[in-house]
Amino acid sequence: MATERPRTTPVARVLQVCLHLLVAGLLALAVARAVVGRGAEPAAVVAAGTAMAAVYAAGPLVGAVRRSRWSTVFWLAVLGVTWVGVLTTTQDGVWLAFPLYFLELHLLGRRGGLVAVAVTAVTAVVAWSWHQHTVGFAAAIGPTLGAAVAVVTVFGYQALYRESEERRRLIDELTAARAGLDAAHHTAGVLAERERLAREIHDTLAQSLSSIQLLLRAAQRALPDRTEAAADYVEQARRAAQDNLAEARRFVRALTPPDLESGSLAGALERLCATTTAHAGLPVRLHVSGDPVRLPVPHEVALLRIAQSALGNTVRHAKASHAEVTLSYMEGEVALDVFDDGAGFDPARAAADADGDGGFGLPSMRARARALGGTFAVESAPGEGTALAVLLPVAPATEDSP
Which end of the chain has fewer CB atoms within 10 angstroms, the N or the C? Predict the structure, then answer.
């Protein structure tokens, strides 16, 4: 398996250029000293230096060296052989050990790079001692110190790079999370506004049109038979009011929460229970009793929102092992019960505390129920779970009811 190399950054590219220049400069210096100096064979040094330069230059140009670990190892081995050739002809070849340290650490990774650096340092010490015809501390200090500096520099840079990448990843995650949160807030705001408009239309326009229709029906029945023209006008007004009432009802239904758009209240509660079970890991079962009927939209919205709030509180606070939701259809009434076997709480104390759930607490549930003429009750105690009950007086939704 090839060692994973970090992505090339502008700093890394600058360091690569500096490394290339360092190798070229040290090779040129070794050859120049051999040509103008004494004690070395200039032809041999030039040949060895040219061979090493050719092999070094071929590395970045061969694609296999960048893609395959074994190709990289082979190239470094051939480069090392040519470097030994330079070492054999001139002691100045020891200087090239320093850039080779960086090259090996960069291409071979931590473990392989340390082994290669150790071999290179030992080779440099042996070659220097051979040229000086003596073995001593002075022969070992230069290559060893250079190897230590190279290891500390490369590993320090890699640690800083990893820290920078981790910070960049965290920033990307935070940016994505913020975008998701903004989208969620926008969606929540849209849904809340839809619900508010539906409630306002139902409580004002639809109720007024319904009253007008009832009054016109009464006036039509009270008119004498001889006032046929007036009765005809009243009938036209009643039909206009009825048409406007139907249009208002369609508008209210268009503003219904998405969970209620594709089916009945029981279906929306079933999806709510399944979603809570899947996302929160809390088993929630739905029970439906009685004969399901279509309820007025405000009643269905209120019961769904109360169920969402109750299950949300159960997930956040109750630490329950399971929960149950019961929807009961009765003559002129509909009941919603939510039970969990969680930690429970003191309802009296909770009622005295300020509600901090942003509209999803007990006061909000109670207000929803009372707004529709219903009742709301909570039974709970610490360690004994929680039972929540909502009872709404309703009549089945028909075309003539708002």
Answer: N
